[in-house]
Amino acid sequence: MTYEPISKGLMFIGNDYALEIVGISTINLKMYDGSIRFISKVRHVKGLKKNLLSMEQFNILGCKIRIDNGIMKIIK
Length: 76
Description:
single chain
């Protein structure tokens, strides 16, 4: 896993409150079948209490997103 501290950028949450982006990282996700997948350019947002994945960021990366019966699939 990589981590790059940065000192620029803001993320706005629902009430237009700005949170500072303090780093960018590559993370790994363990899937239901035990395989490991990597997601790059993940932002570390200071003060954010929940982990969020942005569907727009996946779209920018050229991924397809499907949601069927409550299960989300992200395909590149």
